[in-house]
């Protein structure tokens, strides 16, 4: 399943990047993250791993591990989901008319044949709304720093 959201943020890509790479602070703007921890000594770059307590429909439900598999500051970070949820999440930043277009794409799967696909299809509209609300929160956070 693929879900995308984007938002134009009134800040430079460098300023937005400095906000998104502060892993532990991501729970301030990512609406389904109860908390975020770094698991590896390296905090940035390919190979860095984080752990996130994720909420599903506002309920802290499972801890997910993610690994950075793509890192091009201040343009792109690609995270691989390494737990029950599989797939990748990509954040892309592009300078557009003095602001930054933040594009967020999730390509996800669950290891349960048919039922996993059905569950993700049902959850897809909630996830898209959650991603859009998260980007609105990021916009407020970037504007306040």
Could you characterize what this model shows?
It is a single chain. The protein is an alpha+beta fold and 145 residues long. The protein contains two helices and seven strands; from the N terminus they run βαββββββα. A seven-stranded antiparallel sheet has the order 1-7-6-5-4-3-2, covered by helices on one side. β5 and β6 form a beta hairpin. The longest helix has 30 residues, at 115-144. The N and C termini lie far apart (34 Å).
Q: What is the topological layout?
A:
Elements lengths: L1 E8 L3 H8 L12 E6 L10 E8 L2 E14 L3 E7 L3 E11 L2 E11 L5 H30 L1
Antiparallel strand pairs: 1-7, 2-3, 3-4, 4-5, 5-6, 6-7
Please outline what is shown here.
With 145 residues, the chain is of the alpha+beta class.
Defining key terms:
145 residues, alpha+beta, seven-stranded antiparallel sheet, 26% helix
Structural class: alpha+beta
Fraction of helical residues: 25-40%
* Number of contiguous helices: 2
Span between termini: 34 Å
Overall geometry: globular
How many strands? 7
Strand content: 35-45%
pLDDT under 50 segments (min length 5)? none
- Strand/helix succession: EHEEEEEEH
> Radius of gyration over alpha carbons?
15 Å
Lateral arrangement of strands in the main beta sheet: 1-7-6-5-4-3-2
């Amino acid at each position: 399943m693929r879900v995308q959201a984007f938002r134009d943020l009134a800040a430079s890509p460098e300023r937005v990047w400095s906000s998104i790479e502060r892993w532990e602070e991501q729970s301030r703007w990512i609406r389904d993250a109860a908390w975020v921890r770094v698991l590896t000594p390296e905090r940035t770059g390919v190979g860095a791993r984080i752990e996130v307590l994720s909420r599903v429909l506002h309920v802290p439900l499972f801890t997910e591990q993610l690994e950075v598999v793509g890192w091009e500051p201040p343009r792109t970070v690609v995270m691989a989901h390494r737990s029950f949820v599989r797939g990748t999440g990509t954040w892309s930043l592009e300078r557009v008319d003095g602001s930054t277009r933040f594009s967020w794409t999730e390509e996800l799967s669950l290891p349960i044949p048919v039922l996993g696909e059905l569950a993700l299809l049902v959850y897809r509209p909630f996830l898209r709304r959650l991603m859009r609300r998260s980007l609105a929160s990021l916009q407020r956070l970037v504007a306040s720093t």
